[in-house]
Amino acid sequence: MSRSSATLLLVVLLAFAGLVPPAATASPVPSDFSIGLNVSSVSLYRGNGYTAQISTSVTNGAAEAVSFTASGMPPDVSIVFNPSSVTVGTTANATITVGSGATAGSYPIQITGQTRSARHSVSCTLDILVPDEA
C-alpha cells in the first residue's frame, strides 16, 4: 500500500469513528443596507404633489429586494412608491399627493425599507400649506 493510500485510509477510518472534526463552514454574511431620501422636508399646498427619490445602498453582504412603506401621513395625503420594490443599490420614487381636504400643518413622515434581512427608515417633514384667501 502506498503512503498516500495509507494516509487516506487512516483519515477515512478516523472519520468513521467520529474522531475527525467536521470541516469548518463559513457563516453567511448577513445582508444589510442603508436608505436615504433626497429631501428632508417638503412644503405643499393642498391639491398638489411632489416626487422624492429614495436611494438604497448595500452596507454588508449581498443586495436583496427591498419593499417600501410609509407612515405618519394625515388624512387625505397619500404616498405611492414606483416601483414598490427594488433591488438594494438602486432607487425608487415616492410620490406624495396632498388632497384638497388635507389639514394644514407640519407632519413627520417615515419611509421604511424592508428586506429579508433588515429594516431601515428615513424621515422627512411634510408641511401642508393653505393659500391665503383674499
The number of domains is 1
| Proportion in helices | 10-25%
Which percent range describes the beta-strand content?
over 45%
- Which sequence of SSEs, written as H and E, runs from N to C? HEEEEEEEEE
Instruction: List low-confidence stretches.
Output: none
Radius of gyration: 27 Å
Q: Please report the number of helical segments.
A: 1
CATH topology tier name: Immunoglobulin-like
**CATH level-1 class:** Mainly Beta
Derived structural class: mainly beta
Describe it for me?
Keywords: Signal. Residues 1-26 form the signal peptide. By secondary structure, the chain is mainly β. It has a single domain, classed as Sandwich (Immunoglobulin-like), CATH 2.60.40.10. It has one helix at 3-16; strands at residues 32-37, 41-45, 49-60, 65-71, 77-82, 85-87, 91-98, 105-114, 119-129. Strand 8 (105-114) and strand 9 form a beta hairpin. It is rod-shaped.
